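Format is chain and fold; as here:
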Amino acid sequence: MARKMAGEEFMAIVESTGDRKKTEDALHKSNEQFRVAFEHALTGMALTGIGGRFIKVNPYLCKMLGYFEDELLATTFQAITHPDDLLTSTELLQQMLADEVSTCQIEKRYIHKHGHTVWAFLSVSIVRDKDGNPLYFISHIQDITEHKKAVKALRGSEEKYRALFEQAPDSILLVDVDTGELVEFNSKTHENLGYTSEEFKKLKIQDFEVFESEEEVNKHIRKVIREGSDIFETKHRTKDGRIRNILARSRAVSVGGRNLTLSILSDITDRKIVEERIKAALDDNELLLKEIHHRVKNNLQIVCSLFNLQKESIKDKETFEMVSECQNRIRAIALVHEKLYKSKSFTYINIDEYITDLIKRLFSFYEINPNKIILKVDMDNISLGINTAIPVGLIITELTSNSLQYAFPEGREGEINITVRLIDADEINIVISDNGVGLPANVNIRNAESLGLQIVDTLIKQLKGKIEIHRKGGTKFNIKFRLKK
């Protein structure tokens, strides 16, 4: 019996020793796993004593804060905590020591060894012995410095764009296309229409936008959706019922699956009033200019009629021809005013129409048979102001009249060519030629005895131009001058 009991006690001792060995092995294995996880964690980890001194730190935390391991183990968390966060950190640890909380999570700042700030997110728990006495703290420390910078930059960007949004000189409005709901707007939008922000939030776009028809609304919406943007004029009704003219620049946007239009709205009511006044003033000026040209033309025609009356008493042929030539010059000037009277601009005339009409009148005046003297006109599409058109008309009148009178004596047949070209955008080249008997060699335009050629010389000087005369195979006048800017 005694032997049996001794054997059983021996077996119990052996079994107890085996269990303890397993427990020790398991504990050792657990400790090893914790050590490996602690050392190789991709986040900072630390064991901190009750007083705040570091007991153990992992390599990630050392790298994060710029210290060697022995440097951290020789200091406390309080020494490297940002002064502005120290009180909060200390209070939370006191709450954990008092068993008010078992864990806590906070964002705080550490001071890096090189002096800059490191933002961290801490998860802290407290370890106690079997009697509940606190032993140390375990901290998981995640570096969130870059995240904080990104948030700060985003917040700064948001604040900047919010400031731009609110301080924009125009109204900015974000509208739900499907419902007409006002998703977002700046202060200018509701202030311009006389509403408070709270009042405006309750409205829809159709409550204050004035369109002629629903089809007009749909037309703009379709264009914005199809092309991505649209610029158009519309009208808005203010809270007190006044109508304001609005220039809308709208763009299609999608936010959270919603189809929206972002519009910049400029109040152009005052501009419209000014435009209407300017248009009315321009209409008055146009009427005035039209009346002036009409009266000048009529007065010149009266002068021509007076010359006709005077010619009835003129017996001398040379004097008669001189008066007739004066009449042609006056008609050339009158024709400019007639063209200006009929034009839309009242300041510019088309040189092709003017010269063609002018030459036809000269042919009629001199009773020229167009089958005997053929006229060829080739002109660029040029518009000239009155200060240039009148000299050009007079020059062409004088030189063409000279050809009609003297180039083809005794019923001789021939040809007159008139070419007007625009060169280098600001230079005019006029060529008047005939294949008649030619200008006598002793005639020089600079000191001509003929009044007509004297007038031509004076007008070319007025235009600051140049003239060349060629006598081979008839007569050719080549005139060049620059347009005044």
Notes: The domain at 168-267 is CATH 3.30.450.20 (Beta-Lactamase).
